[in-house]
């Protein structure tokens, strides 16, 4: 009886691990001054405040901030499948 309970619990654990969805990765290229940030999402530190060329080849929105922690007023918002030059030190890809 104990053996069959352990087997059943083990099988349920395996099913739970296989069924739980994982967080979706950002898809598509996001190129900032020649660097591809395509596989990243969330707040991304770009370094010191400077004008940068953005090319968003994904369907996701990118918000550019003057602050390094993606807070405060946005200096630019880049829609999916668009490009532009914006000044900022961080960006949030949603």
UniProtKB/TrEMBL annotation:
Residues 1-25 form the signal peptide. Keywords: Signal. It comes from the Bacteria. The keyword Signal applies. This is DUF2690 domain-containing protein. It comes from Nocardia colli.
């Amino acid at each position: 009886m104990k053996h069959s309970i352990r087997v059943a619990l083990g099988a349920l654990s395996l099913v739970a691990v296989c069924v739980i969805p994982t967080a979706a990765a950002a898809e598509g290229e996001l190129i900032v001054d020649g660097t591809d940030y395509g596989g990243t999402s969330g707040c991304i530190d770009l370094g010191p405040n400077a004008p940068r060329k953005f090319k968003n080849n994904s369907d996701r929105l990118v918000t550019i901030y003057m602050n390094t922690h993606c807070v405060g007023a946005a200096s630019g918002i880049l829609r999916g499948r668009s490009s532009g030059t914006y000044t900022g030190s961080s960006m949030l890809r949603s």
